[in-house]
């Protein structure tokens, strides 16, 4: 970063500080990861200089000799990884990918049926504060109170009652595998299209650790930057019959020129994801999430749904006498970064919800295993107990958080993270 330090020392310093933060802290945000240095190099390349509206062989600008090859390679790798018939790698991120599907398949006012935000769904699945719920009629299903599992009977009932044009399955905070076959049967029964949004679990899908929706869904969307460990981006996969509508919706319907540097970074990530090493990595993600859930339960936390089958754990912080927001803020002060989250049937308001969401893709990328998960759970319990203790003043609490942050940093020093730059003695540069 020599030129950057010279041209813009302020931004350079913030990037260095963020790099330090990503080394020193335990990153438990379920949607985050560490991309490889190869992915960073592709993403930071001169491909950002090129305009290429259109698709390979059908561009509106000349000079696409290499850009076409990059995009075609990225598409070919995606098809091989997921078994998709048609792929569009141009969406700028996950939300625009979903929006493009709506532009392609729906008319404004059409009904979409998706998992509610509070039960682990995503804003773009028909929530009222997102375009998906403002321009379309969003109907929302949830999970069962007794099992924490998606209430497939409710999905079917709502589908029959509301006759949606599109049913969406997929989530941002649901710790179980999805039954795509069952969703497909429900969609077929009411003449709806099925979209699966695998933004969170795409890395597990390519590793065979989560069912693949491709045989069952008409359209599958994903991000590239979560468990898939690529740069930030989005992708749409679909059956050939929807290819033209999807491509037209992305460009010119919704977007202009694709971000070619991102496409190259995604292609590199796909190459990495096709290796046996990545499959082993994905298996460790799940193993770690299970270990984390079990350790947290051992510490007295209530884990929503009783455990996990994927990469994430939703924890009811109120089981330790704190709100999710209080726990998330205190954990950050103690060197462990997560986000507060609503839990199913939450009685608390959205800004002060009952839960926190934890994920293991990032910690697994730096080599953490079940032993480290045990330590994280113990530190989290200590943080929660101190935060809940009315007898402790702010300074006493802060002292405990600082102590834990010190232990966290010492642990992190033993686990260099992909993509960060380390000097000869293993020190971050
Ligand atoms: C993260 C996520 C998205 C949105 O991705 P952005 O890249 O943040 O726009 C869409 N759907 C689901 C299920 C997600 O978890």
Can you give keywords for this protein?
429 residues; alpha/beta; Aspartate Aminotransferase, domain 1; 16 helices; binds pyridoxal-5'-phosphate
What is the element layout, followed by pairings?
Elements: H1 2-7, H2 9-24, E1 26-27, H3 37-43, E2 54-55, E3 58-59, H4 67-82, E4 86-88, H5 94-105, E5 111-115, H6 131-134, E6 137-141, H7 152-162, E7 166-170, H8 180-189, E8 193-197, H9 202-206, E9 219-223, E10 234-238, H10 243-254, H11 260-273, H12 276-298, E11 302-303, E12 312-316, H13 324-333, E13 336-337, E14 339-341, E15 355-359, H14 361-365, H15 370-388, H16 394-413
Parallel strand pairs: 1-13, 5-6, 5-7, 7-8, 8-9
Antiparallel strand pairs: 2-3, 4-10, 9-10, 11-12, 12-15, 14-15
Helix pairs in contact: 3-11, 4-11, 5-10, 7-8, 12-15, 13-15, 15-16
The structure holds pyridoxal-5'-phosphate (PLP).
